[in-house]
Structures are given as structure tokens and as C-alpha cells.
Amino acid sequence: xxxxxxxxxxxxxxxxxxxxxxxxxxxxxxxxxxxxxxxxxxxxxxxxxxxxxxxxxxxxxxxxxxxxxxxxxxxxxxxxxxxxxxxxxxxxxxxxxxxxxxxxxxxxxxxxxxxxxxxxxxxxxxxxxxxxxxxxxxxxxxxxxxxxxxxxxxxxxxxxxxxxxxxxxxxxxxxxxxxxxxxxxxxxxxxxxxxxxxxxxxxxxxxxxxxxxxxxxxxxxxxxxxxxxxxxxxxxxxxxxxxxxx
Length: 246
Hints:
Largest sheet: none
Distance between the termini: 24 Å
Structural class: mainly alpha
């Protein structure tokens, strides 16, 4: 199986994460019955979903959009523009200025980490992603970016831990399911554990990923599992109109 990296994905994260959910507020618990989180369900019976029963809950990171000043909005815009143009020194300077005045803005830490990542300063990137999580423990992209760095450095246990932490925050995070599935499948040789996370990812995005479908079909063949149709997960209400953190 071949995993293809998509160039520029981190820029999409940068744009989406700058202006949302920078406060360190705990996610609200659903009023439904007790169920296992996707992070706790590492192995599922063939054809069974590891997603909690019922409709998807809102992404807690998007539920807490902070109020920011016009000046701060302009600084965010300047940083985003510099990142899009690959003007890393300029982007770093703006983001450091934002963080110095607003250390609890998780999105600024995340984007600073992405700037370092683009320059292959992985140690500084890892620290920035950790700072993003410390500022807001619901920042799912920060967990994933940190885990990707850890995976690339060969620290698979730490990467798995951070993907699981992200899924414990919000079990409907599609990218966390995809990334932990890739870790299990391509790096740890845990095909049985990988399959339900690939299936959860595909379920959450509505089945519109041909590559993921091929990954699932390949795993099912290797495991001797007959494919079963799955119903799409009912979407959660949008937290911020027109914005996404995925």
C-alpha cells in the first residue's frame, strides 16, 4: 500500500486554525448514554463501526471561537498571507509577536509550528505544537501535527498516544482516524487495528476518497474480510458558519 502525502495540506490547516478556538475551554459532554470513544476502541469486529452511536457531536475546538480585536485580525491576516507566499521569516516574526501578546492563542502556536516545519526545524516545530495543545487541549490539528513529527522520527508509541488523545477529545475527527490508521498499517504492521480507523475516516467524510477506499479494500483482502456497506454518520451542526478545522 502506498501513502501519498498531499503538498500544501499544512497551509489549509493554517488558514482554518488562525481564528478559531484559542481559549483553553473543556469540550461539553454530550447528554447521551455512555459509550466507548474511538480512541478506546482499537479493534472492532469485522463490519462494525468504532464510532459512537448516534449523530456526530460538534468539534469542540470550533465551539469556542474567541473574540479578537481588529488589530489582531490584521496580524493574523498578515501571517496567513506570508505563509501562503512561503515568506517564513516574516510569518515567524508576526506569529511570535501575536504569541508574545496573546500566549493563550492556540492557533498562533500551531501556525508557528507549521512555519518551523516548513523550514525543517522539527525540534522547534514540536515545541510549538506542544505549546498549542497546552494553550487549548482541544486543538486536534496540533495533536496530529505533533504525532506526524513523532512518527517521522520513529517514535511510533508517542505518535499513537497523540492520535488517541485527539480522538479522546473528539472521536469524530476524520484526520485523526486516517492518520492513526496509516500508523498502524504502514509503520506498526497492525492491519486489524488499522481497518476500523480507515473505515471510520471514510464514513465521516461521506465516502468521497478513492484512495482510502483502495486502502480499505486492500486490507480487507489481506484479512479475508468481506466488505459490508456502511451508513454515513449524521453530520453535527456547524459550529462556525463557513469555517472548518479539518
